[in-house]
């Protein structure tokens, strides 16, 4: 059973593959290996997708988040709640195929119960056994060279040479955009798996040879354990990426170094894991402990995902078309195996149109049978809608916006039926909605914040977000506000800000008041056109500020008043309206005199 590393999005959720969909989410989950708890993996969320079972930790999600591929699971097993024991779902791995390099060692993890009290790499004097070392890293780093431009590209992590065929989508070259041949990708993948380094030998623990074994082992680790699988450069054992080519290095060297250097007692008196649990082949079973409920629907969705096996659709051939009816010749005889006759001209165009209409009718008929079929055929339906739009000549902006909204509505959306039914289901829904909003705002393809100048009001964001859902799972204003309030607790890259007037806006966490004031002052210090005297810069209105930075007029007014309250700018109220200038009073008369002058001017206006 392999626990793989998990890539997270900006909202600290699993980064899904192209054809991967989210099925269920549950919080209050911990991980077990056999009967023992896994440290640092006891407080997190469980995400079930069509391809994986993911665990995302709440305390340190970037470091302690793992995933198990569904294709490596033999069967799940459910354990009900008993006394103080929480309900658990046990995942059993598939047996390894003969001839593979990754063979599970039959040696037990500990030779005796006392060995669990010692750091990894040591045993008691009475046990002559050795603790098994970490197996080789299963994540293969393979690269292929583009035959056109010679660019080195990485093979996708989810590429399986055993199931790849001519229908498997291959990523194009990052430099020239030419798609590589399938034989080249399969060849480099098999070569990388064949040249994978073996596991490091276990250390001997004799009383006399212990120190010499440690010295020799540390010497070997320092010299050759962290060799780059791409360019064979000898890196320092503490490096995680190659210094020459930047390829990710195997974690076995880093773990082995820590096993030799660290010599301290484990925190728990029972058996514990001092090294990394990622890609450890000695792990027999993985248990998900559900402490906040939701185990029953999670188990049902997991069984359904194992039956559907949607990860096979990535390399599956297209659906075979039903065989046509036997054609009858002029003399009345049936010719079943007769090859189709090539027709040219107007008759050929009419036949092609008839075949296209029949194919569209089949796609629509199978897609709208039920919701699952519609989600499976989403791409085909969207492609058909685009084709109809081109044929009808409807190329307006409204049609394009409606089409993009329909496509986004069929994408990843956290709905209430994806969550558990425990006592904290409402909080979990609001939390996942907050993460979904963060992903929506930070998506570069949509560019919501970029179009709005980096800041948008909460009301406008609510309208835009509901509009993209196209009538599916609309969010109420109360739930939307609750989700926005949780951005600060979840440490997401966006934040909710409240102005003095009560206006609530959304902006990036890195955007501060100091940066806003600096950008305003740079603009106010520009030399005005067609003006001889520009010693004080230029004066701007709220409308000009909104046009300059892409803000709404309300947001521009609030930002100008914020800068005025700090003292960076000042206002000039005249018959033409209110204009804001850079504050030169503090530099000319001093800070206290400037305050007195501003106070006097305000009193005179009154």
From TrEMBL:
The keyword Metal-binding applies. Residues 6-318 form the GLUE N-terminal domain. It is found in: Cytoplasm; Endosome. Residues 91-131, 317-336 are annotated as: Disordered. One of its GO terms (molecular function) is phosphatidylinositol-3-phosphate binding. Keywords: Coiled coil, Cytoplasm, Endosome, Metal-binding, Protein transport, Transport, Zinc, Zinc-finger. It comes from the Eukaryota. Component of the endosomal sorting complex required for transport II (ESCRT-II). Belongs to the VPS36 family. Component of the ESCRT-II complex (endosomal sorting complex required for transport II), which is required for multivesicular body (MVB) formation and sorting of endosomal cargo proteins into MVBs. This is Vacuolar protein-sorting-associated protein 36. It comes from Meristemomyces frigidus.
């Amino acid at each position: 059973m392999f626990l793989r590393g998990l890539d997270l999005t900006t909202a600290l959720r699993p980064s899904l593959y192209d054809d991967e969909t989210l099925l269920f989410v549950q919080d209050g989950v911990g991980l077990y290996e056999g009967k023992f708890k896994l440290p640092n993996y006891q407080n997190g969320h469980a995400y079930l997708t069509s391809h994986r079972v993911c665990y995302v930790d709440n305390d340190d999600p970037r470091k302690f988040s793992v995933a198990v591929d569904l294709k490596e699971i033999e069967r799940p097993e459910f354990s009900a709640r008993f006394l103080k024991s929480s309900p658990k779902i046990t995942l059993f791995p598939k047996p390894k195929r003969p001839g593979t390099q990754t063979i599970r060692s039959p040696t037990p993890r500990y030779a005796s119960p006392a060995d669990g009290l010692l750091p990894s790499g040591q045993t008691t004097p009475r046990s002559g056994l050795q603790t098994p070392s970490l197996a080789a890293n299963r994540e293969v780093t393979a690269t292929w060279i583009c035959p056109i431009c010679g660019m080195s590209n990485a093979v996708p992590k989810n590429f399986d040479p055993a199931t790849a065929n001519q229908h498997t989508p291959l990523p194009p070259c990052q430099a020239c955009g030419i798609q590589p041949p399938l034989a080249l990708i399969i060849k480099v993948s098999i070569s990388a798996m064949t040249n994978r380094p073996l596991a490091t030998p276990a250390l001997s623990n004799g009383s006399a040879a212990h120190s010499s074994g440690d010295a020799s082992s540390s010497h070997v680790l320092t010299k050759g354990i962290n060799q780059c699988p791409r360019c064979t450069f000898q890196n320092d054992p503490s490096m995680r990426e190659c210094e020459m080519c930047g390829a990710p290095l195997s974690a076995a060297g880093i773990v082995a170094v820590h096993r030799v250097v660290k010599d301290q007692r484990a925190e728990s008196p029972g058996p514990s894991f001092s090294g990394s649990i990622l890609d450890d082949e000695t792990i027999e079973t993985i248990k998900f402990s559900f402490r906040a409920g939701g185990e029953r629907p999670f188990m049902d969705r997991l069984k359904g995902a194992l039956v559907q096996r949607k990860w096979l659709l990535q390399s599956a051939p297209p659906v075979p078309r039903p065989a046509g009816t036997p054609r009858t010749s002029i003399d009345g005889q049936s010719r079943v195996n007769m090859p189709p006759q090539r027709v040219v001209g107007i008759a050929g165009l009419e036949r092609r149109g008839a075949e296209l209409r029949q194919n569209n009718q089949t796609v629509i008929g199978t897609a709208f049978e039920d919701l699952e079929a519609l989600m499976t055929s989403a791409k085909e339906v969207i492609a058909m809608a685009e084709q109809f739009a081109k044929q009808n000549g409807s190329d307006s902006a409204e049609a394009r916006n409606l089409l993009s909204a329909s496509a986004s509505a069929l994408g990843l959306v956290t709905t209430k039926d994806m969550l558990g039914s425990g006592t904290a289901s409402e909080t979990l829904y609001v939390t996942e909605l907050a993460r979904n909003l963060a992903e929506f705002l930070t998506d570069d393809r949509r560019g919501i914040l970029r179009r709005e100048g980096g800041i948008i009001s909460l009301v406008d964001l609510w309208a835009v977000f509901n509009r993209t859902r196209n009538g599916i799972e609309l969010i109420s204003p109360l739930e939307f506000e609750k989700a926005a309030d949780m951005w600060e607790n979840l440490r997401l890259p966006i934040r909710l800000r409240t102005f003095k007037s009560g206006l609530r806006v959304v902006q990036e966490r890195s955007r501060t008041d100091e940066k806003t004031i600096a950008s305003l002052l740079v603009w106010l210090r520009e030399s005005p056109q067609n003006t001889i005297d520009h010693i004080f810069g230029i004066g701007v209105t709220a409308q000009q500020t909104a046009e300059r930075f892409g803000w709404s007029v309300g947001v521009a007014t609030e930002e100008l008043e914020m800068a005025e309250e700090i003292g960076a700018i000042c206002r000039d109220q005249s018959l033409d309206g209110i204009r804001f200038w850079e504050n030169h009073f503090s530099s000319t008369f001093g800070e206290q005199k400037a305050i007195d002058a501003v106070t006097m001017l305000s009193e005179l206006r009154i």
